[in-house]
Specification:
Radius of gyration: 21 Å
CATH architecture of the largest domain: 2-Layer Sandwich
Structural class: alpha+beta
CATH class of the largest domain: Alpha Beta
CATH topology of the largest domain: Gyrase A, domain 2
Oligomer: single chain
Shape: globular
Order of helices and strands: HEEHEEHEEEHEEHHEEEHEHHEEEEEEEE
Number of domains: 2
Largest sheet: 6 strands, mixed
Helix content: 10-25%
Strand order of the largest sheet: 10-11-12-9-3-13
CATH superfamily of the largest domain: Probable tRNA modification gtpase trme, domain 1
Length: about 375
Amino acid sequence: MSDLQHTPLHATHLALNARMVDFGGWDMPVNYGSQIDEHHAVRTDAGMFDVSHMRVVDFTGDQAREFFKFAIANNVDKLTVPGKALYSCLLNTNGGVIDDLIVYYFADDNYRVVINAGTAEKDIAWFGHLNAEGGFGLTISPRRDFAIVAVQGPKAREKVWQVLPETRAATEHMKPFNAVQFPLTPYGDVMLARTGYTGEDGFEVTIPSTKVEAFWKALVAQGVKPAGLGARDTLRLEAGMNLYGQDMDDNVSPLDAGLAWTVDLADKDRTFVGRTALEKNGSKAGFVGLILLKENGRAGGVLRAHQKVITPDGEGEITSGTFSPSMQESIAFARVPPSVKPGDTVHVLIRDKQLPASVVKLPFVRNGRVLASI
């Protein structure tokens, strides 16, 4: 008997004949037929993902702002308008990445965090430790009464408004990385966040788990295509977005994972977990994009995680790799010596052959447009 956890949409996925896989202890759809079709639907129209395995955690208390200023590497002082969101890394004392997450600010004593499924228990324990050790007195409430559906693509928001018309006025002009909460009939308390993991516009919709099946089916009726983990991975990689456990982990600094932009060192007086280690160690590696070069019109393989990257200044390693449906090229992220720059050519060891790859600046694709070229 399987010990895998199920989201509230599990039966819905099975009814759609999804191919299910073990993803961090959760039984999740990898595709519903054609992963390529799902990918292109998100790039050109609208697709949706069940991301209910991710954990919603609410933080309440008078010292919530001071807690997050200490607990995460980005600075929540940037959050001054209710609903504003912030992407950040949660670090350990050695400067390694415990998780990457999004913090939503609703009031000085009310924050919401969405964390990765595979790290949820570790994150919650670490937050609890920091809360107790620092005497912040917060109430930390992991929520399992919510599900999350990510609706992504150039037509995604329009199709969500067709299902939830009363949300349009408040979200039509809402900027990215903002969220609004609504009490909606018949769905209950719903949060629409203009965030995502695909490089396309859209909403991540947090909705009561008892209502998510009806919401999902209403979106299907509007032509939103269900998409699985396979398309989610090719989309996020094209968009230059890291995957926890592949591109960074507890032993990797955000400075070596292309995430320096999420570390706010501007406030010299702000002490946050991991800051001392980051300032002491600095950045030791570059984090770049690779496109496998073709010889005689054909690529000699596909870039995959853990392949060795050979450069004039030492070796590196691919952290994530795939074949890009949007570009029709083999692409990857790689951690390389800091001297390696966009425009350089490196070699990747694939089946005992050293194949040339062009170094490019990330991202590869955003908002339906290819940005990286050889």
